[in-house]
Design a protein that fits this description.
Length: 140
């Protein structure tokens, strides 16, 4: 907190734990695997890369209805969403081409296996939350 009365708050707008668990058990477990395969097929084509990346950035929503954390700056009665500074676009693009596309595939499959094991569920969900960072170094 700064001396000017500014507070930065992290918020998540996730549905309740029971709804997330039911979604995961009955829909997310199979839909997420299909979602990942379709995203990777789109990424094979140049024209499909933007849609594939967008799909992979939303994998947490598909598997367990999890929204990304948002940072909000509160100053008095005013609220303003804050985005963290991102790595240079060209560095992110180079990282994606050389490392991100294959590392994120391994990362997601490991996360999926952890989720299926049930005991690794919390760690698997955490890994799915980090897919955008592993894919393109996106800061959230």
């Amino acid at each position: 907190m700064e001396s000017t009365g500014t507070v930065i708050v992290e918020t998540k707008r996730n549905p309740g734990c029971l709804l997330q668990l039911l979604w995961f058990a009955f829909i997310g477990i199979w839909l997420s695997q299909i979602w990942m395969v379709v995203a990777w097929l789109l990424m094979v084509t140049i024209i499909g890369i933007p849609l594939g990346i967008a799909m992979l950035n939303n994998i947490s929503k598909v598997i367990a209805l999890r929204e990304p954390t948002q940072r909000v700056m509160v100053r008095g009665s005013m609220q303003q969403a804050m985005e963290p500074p991102q790595v240079n676009f060209f560095i992110r693009a180079l990282y994606f081409l050389l490392v991100g596309w294959w590392l994120s595939a391994l990362w997601m499959e490991l996360a999926y296996l952890l989720c299926v094991s049930v005991i690794g569920l919390p760690f698997g969900f955490w890994m799915f939350d980090l897919v955008p960072t592993v894919l393109t170094l996106k800061r959230s």
